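Course exercise 7: structure representation. Students receive a sequence record and must write out the corresponding structure in token form. The form below is the worked example handed out in class, using Histidine kinase response regulator (566 residues). Read each field label carefully; the graders check that inputs and outputs are placed in the correct fields and that the protein name is recorded exactly as given.

STUDENT ID: A-19
EXERCISE PROTEIN: Histidine kinase response regulator
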Amino acid sequence: MSGRDDESWSSLGLSPLSRAALDELLQELLDRIGDVVASRERLRALLGAVVAIGGDLELRSVLSRIVEAACALVGARYGALGVIGPDRTLAEFITHGIPPELHAKIGDLPHGRGVLGLLIEDPRPLRMPDITKHPRSYGFPPHHPPMHSFLGTPIRTRDQIFGNLYLAEKQGAAEFTDDDEQIAVALAAAAGVAVDNARLYATANRRGQWLSATAEITNVLLGQVNRTSALTLVARRAREVAAAQLALVLLADEDAGELTVEVCDAADGQPTLAGTVLPVGETAFAAALSGAGHVEFADLGKAAAWPVPVATGPAVVTPLEADDVLHGLLVVAQPAGQAAQPDDLAMLRTFAGQAALALERARAQDEREQLVVLEDRERIARDLHDVVIQRLFATGLHLQTAAQLAVKPEISQRIAGAVDDLDTTIRDIRAAIFELRTPASAALRSEIRDLVAEAAGPLGFRPELRLVGPIDSAVPDNMRPDLAAVIREALSNAARHAQATCVRVTVEVGEGQLSVHIIDDGVGTDGDQARGGLVNLRERAARYGGAFRVSRAEPTGTDISWSAPI
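STUDENT ANSWER:
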């Protein structure tokens, strides 16, 4: 101090020693004022950070803002937020301060087993001057930036630990201070509220999407229901709202013990499985079919022997039940490494119920339509029997009477021929009446016509077809595949070997027997040298106690005869 200052202190009666102590007190007061100002600024920054992270409701954005705000508040160069998964490891890791290109070089995210795992095991604030010297330190992977000072604190949402906030490399100091820890703990408390709000918002938004999809499907079910279209809509909306990779609707056939993939809705790049038939005994779906309710699989690809590789993550299987009738299964598979949301399980039950309702509605519509058709067919059959046949029969009687009065023999022959034609017509009408009174689904005649029509391409002409008798109603279901095989094989042989210009196919039911005759005008064959497919036809006839014969037709060609009792 100057001499004048000494005089001033002397005039106050202060000694040099007292003056030094007063200087120290003044300096301490200035330091404390500075600390108060700094604390006030940090408090403002903390409040600003709390407002910033609380103003966003998208979870990923909230987590990123928390890490950025924490680094800014405590002066950390690097920060991260690790989300704890169900298996008590880090399911997600959001970082700050590491450039994207360096992040890519580092590779896989940490699992939380080293020092980071300390906060998972014991969720209390943790501060270290040098993380590398801790006994639990495993070191850093290649390309990872060096880190020494460390500060970590858990983030709680209500009574659960959501994740941990990790901060490293205090800037401008060797380690983090107690004030830094308190700031981080305060921010973590506010972050827990922000995370909880974001999760509630996401849940509400997802439920809204589920309800919107449910309303859309309900509107479809209120109108005319097309089974495949309704199930396709159910599968598509279930996959979209659940953010899934694959959604399947499998229909169960209890008699055959099989599951058929009726609908497959897959993300881009995923294989389509529609039409796949799976034996129930060779899959892991039996538990869901037995009434166990929801069944979860870690990997859908291992749940069954799929015809193509199925690479997905966990899957949820829900039975399709309506009025205590099990129709099949709804399967929703997540991408690898992603689990289904708990709230999605309840909504999947609703979707499964809607899919079952669509099946019930479609079945009821088909039955109503079939009933209308059957009633119309019954009316036509009754009119044919009561009106048309009686008139034809009466006409035949009149013609027979007229034949007796005819003078010329040729006139009698012509009348007799007309009477025979009327008898044939009456038999054909009666056969038609039999067909009209059979279920509309039993369209064996149509199947035979389709087989004959398909042979027109290989043959170069359309074969002649004659159907006699109540084929649809009389031929049992177990014999129909063999009948189709006989016709297909005989026509295939004619196309490959006969060099024919005409083929006649006759299928007849009468006197308790089903008969098939296929005659061509080709080069002919020796029945004793029958082999290959013709041998199979003989075995098919023997299975039912029937007969099979191959002979030469007159004047040329082959005559194939196949018969079986019914």
